[in-house]
Amino acid sequence: MVTVEARQKLMTLDELIQMGSDGHIEIIDGEVLEMPGDGGLHHVISGNTYDVLKPFVVANKLGMLFFDGLHFLMDSQAGGLKNSFVPDISFIRKEDLRADWDIEKPYPGVPTLAIEVISPGNDAEQVQVKVRTYLDKGTEQVWLMYPKTQEIHQYINGASVTVRIYRAGEEVDAAALFPGIQGLIVDTLFKLPSYMKRPGLPNLDDE
User: Fold this and answer.
1) Is the model's pTM score more than 0.90?
2) How many domains does the chain have?
3) Hey, CA dihedral for 172, 43, 38, 92, is it positive or negative?
4) DSSP-assigned letter for residue 22
5) pLDDT tens digits for 42-88?
6) Which of 70-84, 103-117, 161-175 has the lowest mean pLDDT?
7) Domain membership flag for residue 31
8) pLDDT (0 to 100) of residue 199
9) 3-state secondary structure (DSSP) of residue 33
10) 13 is a domain residue
11) What dihedral angle (degrees, nearest 10) is formed by the CA atoms of 74, 114, 116, 42?
12) For residue 27, is it within any domain?
């Protein structure tokens, strides 16, 4: 990410909304950062994960699952946004939905689950600041998905933060969020169709 501009005051919610389709930004600790476009690998992995989660969430009426694009204001004040994040995938449990959310606007609070697919352009320090902010504000879990190493790092909130790392052949334990779900196998989530070019990427679909 790169800085869009140096601001002397925090961006407001109205300013963010007025950006409309040009608002491809995040706000991290008051700094407005441009979100670079993601490559195809990023979107395929996000889509794989969404395709496993969405039917289960809908069938069990667990809440709302969102693909990339929804801003979470992380309980910032509308008059000055200190943090505004856009996860690649987010889940809000039905019981966690804010009654004060105007659904035509960004979500005022935090997601129950935030999933970030890590791209080459992501700054490692900024990613960790986001993870810490998610957890400090009350997000129950954050998943970082690393396409090149095919690892998923699962941060679980609690009295202390637990970090679990899943690799090829392992299944992500998401029972606390999605009781009874199956299919969150690392290989499945990172799998690409054979007709896609995949230079330098290991263990992909060779069918």
Assistant:
1) no
2) 1
3) negative
4) G
5) 999 999 999 999 999 999 999 999 998 899 999 888 789 999 999 99
6) 70-84
7) no
8) 60
9) strand
10) no
11) -120
12) no
